[in-house]
Design goal:
Blueprint: H1 7-17, H2 24-37, H3 39-51, H4 54-57, H5 63-70, H6 75-91, H7 98-104, H8 112-122, H9 129-141, H10 146-163, H11 166-194, H12 199-227
Length: 228
Amino acid sequence: MSGIKTKSVRNIEQKMENVDADTLRYQALQGAKGFKTSWIDLGRILHLVWKDRMYKDWGYASFSAYAAKEIGVREQTALKLLKSYAFLKKEEPRYLGKHYNEEAGAATVPTYESVDVLRRAEGKKELDREDYVSIKKCVLEKGKDAREAAKDLAVLIKRREELQPEDVWQSKRRVLLKRLVSLLKAAAKEIKISKMLSIQVIRETDKLIDMLEAEITHRTEQEGRTDG
């Protein structure tokens, strides 16, 4: 892992080599480098703040409000930092360990945007384990930036979609519809028991369930005729 750096960090370091270390320009480059490589510390802290809802004790109604008003980080950025750190903590904890940090050095740590791409790849049902490992190597071992990693992810997804036969997609759609019907039935039952919503809403929910079940039956019959 040693010696592998993201393209953005390499670009910054190359520029720093040609700038006087005593100048403000050098300090700006150094600060930018620090921002790109120290996100894990901030992500760890934000994860604790979010998990324990500490922001409420500090007078903020939401995590987003805390991030924007307290530390001046936009909601989208704060959530990416939080989710990227949480993902590494759960799925790839060795990249948060002291040994990795000592071996790789700050400049070799992937950006939070790249880890966010890896996180999204892990959740893609179209991809198998081999695909995930491929993206993982791009992000955590080859040091690819988020844009490059996202392109690789898009290529993999497109390739998998082209390999999926139509009958497999039909089966997946049917399974998803059945799952949706089950969820709606459970919700409708709870609504009827608790009487939390109006009769009209209950009727509309029942009507939607009937429509979905009819759609499932129709698709099943169509597939049966096609197979025959």
